[in-house]
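Because discrete structure vocabularies remain unfamiliar, we turn briefly to a single example record, giving the amino acid sequence and backbone structure tokens:
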Amino acid sequence: RGQSEAAAQAAELRSQHLASESRLKARRFDLTLELSRAAERDTDEQRAAEARRRLRRTQLEAQRRQALDGAAELGRRHGALEEEGADAEQRCLQARSRTESSL
């Protein structure tokens, strides 16, 4: 009778041990899955941050190109105005010269 109680106790302990081991494996799997998902989220966040940085660089580059184009256009206009000013000054001098010679 003592042996059968000991055997029953041993069987119960084995059963508890197997159940505990099974819970630990399930928990390990859950934690591994959670860690994997967290790593994916981190990767997604890093990709999103990099995409935001690329977009900002693209926007800044576009603004820089617009500023350079604007500066070039202002340079062309300035040159044209200087040329018009020089022509006007030349016409004025010629008119003054004609006026003085007619006097």
User: Anything to note?
Assistant: The chain has one helix and no strands. The CA atoms of residues 32 and 42 lie 15 Å apart. The longest helix spans residues 2-102.
